[in-house]
Design brief:
It comes from Methylobacterium nodulans (strain LMG 21967 / CNCM I-2342 / ORS 2060). It contains 18 helices and 14 strands.
Length: 466
């Protein structure tokens, strides 16, 4: 049995968590505010885990309490719970040492598993330096499970010096993630220097990265520091590194390993910065074919972060569209909104160009539409609709619970279709327990639409998926 501190200003939620924790065999200790939570911790050194609400009244919200907890010697692991998850509070909570950042409500089995992980590890607390709020251009809009994994990874890696490799399709926002890693980390006040390795001719790339001295070659009229030295103390972002010429790969490897660069025509210079690389290419396949150095791949792939394509982030499409509309209004344009038909059209589209394509579509509509309403006919989308999508005329009709249920049903039907009816794989795609998926299949009448029992064996289980 362990003692678990529950911090929440809402009595019903506090008592509900306490009842569940007691049923799981642990002793709950309750606090209704941040100050009361700190007092409980000071009075009870046996507290082994903390469940911490994010939004609380007074001058101590969840993030402030988390900082105080992490300042304590032998700080217990703390999970931040919120009904208002955002990229910023997810990243900040993970950066400050939260064990996890979860959205309410938390189910009984999820809470059992969570406490099991928390109680198996009690890491000493260490306060992290404060970071500035993320700039608007580095805002990672999205609350889908896929994006929350990315946001948590950013929070965990932000203060590290380890090299990060961002992988994902073109347009998924790799530079946005790189900037978020920089802005939320301890190097935020130093330069962030992006270099597109695919856009610079091979004969100029060495000078662009390492610099040159005056007279080193024809046209070198003055000294140039190069991107490595320009990023001194900050972050160097090497975009599309998979397109880097082989001859440069060896020089980049040496520069990253030794933290020394040699300007063209000059002498070696020591440098200190963090390297974040990105590519849309399959680097392991390139390594296997000899198109990319294996040693450089392993040097870059210290912390891998995979960005999901937009078609796998259905819940993020409309928030992203509204975000881009708001950015346009912020520039002096007329505030605009999407009709339900336009929203349905966006949700049906397959987005081969990902977030970049969505932004272009929304900006184009905002410029070309004179009124305040953007309809489906105003969206210049080619015919890449997602199969099995909802009908435009009824997608957002009715009340909020009805619309949410409609979305849930569509996502479950799609997951079952893509997994050929294998419920275990469908549950994994959706990020839910199989038992919950079974209940929802029955609720939405999907048993005869690819939701029947699969005869295939689920990998890693070794028995039929029944």
């Amino acid at each position: 049995m362990a003692t678990v501190l529950i911090v929440d200003d809402e009595p019903a939620l506090r008592e509900g968590l306490a009842e569940t924790i007691a049923d799981l065999g642990h002793e709950p200790v309750l606090a209704a505010s941040g100050r009361e939570a700190l007092a409980r911790l000071a009075a009870n050194p046996d507290i082994a885990a903390v469940l911490l609400d994010l939004r609380m009244p007074g001058d101590l919200d969840g993030i402030a309490v988390l900082k105080r907890i992490r300042d304590r010697p032998r700080a217990p692991p703390a999970v931040v719970l919120t009904a208002y998850a955002s990229a910023e509070n997810t990243i900040e909570a993970m950066r400050l040492g939260a064990f996890d950042h979860l959205t309410k409500p938390v189910g009984r089995e999820e809470l059992r598993a969570l406490l099991g992980r928390m109680l198996s590890l009690r890491a000493p607390g260490e306060a992290a330096p404060a970071a500035p709020a993320a700039a608007a251009e580095t805002c990672l809009v999205g609350s889908s499970e896929a994006m929350r994994r990315v946001q948590k990874a950013i929070g965990l890696a932000a203060d590290s010096d380890a090299t990060v490799l961002l992988q994902g399709e073109t347009g998924t926002g790799k530079e946005v993630v790189a900037r978020a890693l920089h802005d939320h980390g301890r190097r935020w006040s130093a330069p962030f220097v992006p270099v597109n390795c695919a856009a610079i001719p091979a004969e100029l790339l060495e000078s662009e990265l390492f610099g040159h001295v005056k007279g080193a070659f024809t046209g070198a009229a003055a000294d140039r520091p190069g991107a490595f030295r320009e990023a001194q103390g900050g972050t160097l972002f090497l975009d599309e590194i998979g397109d880097m010429p082989p001859a440069m790969q060896a020089k980049i490897l040496r520069a990253i390993q030794d933290k020394v660069v040699t300007p063209v025509g000059g002498r070696p210079v020591a440098v200190e910065m963090r390297v974040v690389a990105a590519t849309h290419r399959d680097l392991p396949a390139l390594v296997a074919s000899g198109g990319f150095r294996q040693d450089l791949y392993y040097r870059l792939n210290v912390i891998p972060i995979v960005l999901p394509p937009l078609r796998e982030r259905l819940a993020d499409i409309l928030p992203l569209a509204e975000h881009f509309l708001a950015l346009g209004a912020g520039g002096g344009g007329v505030p605009r909104r999407l009709t339900p038909q336009a929203a349905a059209r966006l949700l049906r589209y397959d987005w081969p160009g990902n977030v970049r394509e969505l932004r272009n579509i929304i900006e184009r509509a905002a410029v070309l539409v004179r009124g305040e309403v953007i309809d489906a006919a105003d969206l210049d989308l080619p015919g890449f609709d997602r199969p099995g999508g909802p009908a435009p005329e009824d997608w957002l009709s009715g009340d909020l619970p009805t619309a949410v249920a409609r979305l849930e049903k569509a996502m479950i039907a799609r997951a079952l279709q893509e997994s050929s009816g294998n419920r275990a794989q469908a549950a994994k795609r959706l990020g839910i327990q199989r038992q919950l998926l079974y209940a929802k299949i029955e609720r939405y009448g999907l048993a005869d639409r690819g939701g029947g029992t699969s005869e295939r064996t689920t990998p890693g289980v070794g028995k039929d998926d029944t």
